[in-house]
Amino acid sequence: MPSTNPSHTIATQLLKAIWLAARGNEHALSRVTFKSEGELPSAFAVTDLAAGAMGAAGLALSSLLEASGSIPLSTVTVDRRLASFWFAYSLRPSGWTPPSAEDFVVGDYQTVDGWIRLHTNAPHHRAAALRALNLAAPTGRADIAQAVASWTADALEARVIAEGGCAATMRSWQDWQAHAHGQAVLSEPLLHWQSGAPMITKPLWTFNRKRPLQGLKVLDMTRVLAGPSATRMLAGLGAEVLRIDPPWWDEPTLAPEMTLGKRCTRLDLRKPSERERWVSLLSEADILVHGYRSDALSSLGLDAEQRQKIRPGLVDISLDAYGFTGPWKHRRGFDSLVQMSMGIAHAGQQLAGSSKPKPLPVQALDHSTGYILATAALRGLEVRLRTGAGSIARASLARTGALLMTTLSHAEKSTQAFAPDTEADQAAAIEDTHWGAARRLHWPVDISGINMQWDQPAGPLGSSEATWKS
After folding, report:
1. What pTM, to 2 d.p., does this model score?
2. At the topology level of CATH, where does 101-413+451-470 sit?
């Protein structure tokens, strides 16, 4: 069995759900064990989700290695404590502080009939929220609160969305299950799968046992946390990761955490010449991970079918906040908004007896979905290795949230907090990031013979040319 420790039972159950969604063999689950006691404080089993998601990605790598003949039946050990820490912040700066992106608008606000969250970290999302509230130049958070207080939550949510912004009414889990889009999400699988065509005749890389993805190219078109978590792991396994952002996008707070192992460039796909450059890059990629809304690339004539024609054998992995069916399938969203929409923040509030929404202690939907995406990417590589076929897989924050909802009874058991991390939890290597020297926490997943390391230190977005190194 994956673990005989009763306190690890939930992690084992979540691992199984993710692994089976990734079309894994159930017998392989016995390779995974969990260690360390304690957990993040939450009404939900956040630590177990972290361990289960990272364990699934480790198991997918183990399965790929076995298929390649590199390492037979390798075991996977997941440190639940370190996994929890990686779901927060893995970087430990030396003598400097990560850049801040303070925004006084973002946050939860009380409305006439409940609560709403405004997500305004990006300048254009902030501008949309202020237009919706008819506020030209608010002087502080009190101005925002006063304006929001005159609205019903659903009406303001609709207005902000119409302005091109991001907002979410706080709903209960019961309300979400009755909601048209909630029903659509709950009817979706945790991972959607499709076979790619046409096929290739043989694998396009030779395995390096210690750096198993060395020689592979990953085109990363993701933002913030979920997708970047997936591609960060692939980079740590040796893949060449090229991240592409549009000219107007920035993530100053998260770049030190999420650009590890990657080269970062900018392209505007609305411009024909830059779209042509992107197509050229895709034609050499082995894996594409993107977090664009499901209609965005299709509107440019670059839907999943066309991408397979551009690059036969492509492992095509995509992410959406609210899923791929239902009335909200094209809606912008982020982890904190999905928590509000589907009842996570409400359940946390109710169980804590709080007067305000109570979200998860970390952005667990983002991070866990990221490792689900990494699992899918590695499983897709195994399919290509065995058959020559590409793969198309899709996941969403909302569907991952539904998985986490199954652990709500977790609140009934007593919990022990983790001891804070110390220098002993950090890898010895110094990372010379763009912002200063730092160290990373040890990687939580151990697979015998695998050297998890990143060849590129964290750096700012847009700092590289739009080319492959090799």
Report:
1. 0.95
2. Rossmann fold (3.40.50)
